[in-house]
Amino acid sequence: MSKSWLSGKVQVQDTADGKRLVATQKIADDEQITRNGDDRTLMMTDVEFQEFAREHTYKDAITVTGGFKRVTVSLDAADPSNLAIRTSQPNAYNDGDGLIAIRDIEPGEEITIAS
User: Fold this and answer.
1) Tens digits of residue pLDDT in 42-99
2) N or C terminus of the chain: which is more exposed, having fewer CB within 10 Å?
3) Which residues have CB under 8 Å from 99's CB, separation 6+?
């Protein structure tokens, strides 16, 4: 089972809205920021997913045929990839293995991904 990893150029900071990833040093375009830990995938109906979503902070779902969703749930609650803020102007993306910068990120900037 692989463990998650966080770049030494990023720090987890507590805010009034929860934990956030913040750059402490300049991160170059295309630089890896995090590496995801092992995940577990579940299949569930739309109704099951709505109930699941009320109880779990982190989840990622893809709708598949027949009214089902494939839901990925991180096994590592401390997986730093889960702390990126969702926004319409991201500075990173998740390539399936972790977060990668899509532009230079300056110290003090929060790490963000597309909503």
Assistant:
1) 788 888 888 888 777 656 777 777 778 777 765 555 578 888 899 999 999 988 788 9
2) N
3) 21, 32, 33, 34, 81, 84, 92, 93, 111, 113
**Are 95 and 111 members of one domain?**
yes
- For 16, the token pair is 């009034």
Question: pTM of this prediction?
Answer: 0.67
CA distances from 112 to 12, 53, 63, 96 (A): 13, 21, 23, 15
Number of domains making up the chain:
2
Would you state the structure tokens that stand for residue 92, as one six-digit string?
Answer: 């990173």
What CATH number did the domain enclosing 93 receive? 2.170.270.10
Q: Which two tokens stand for residue 85?
A: 């803020």
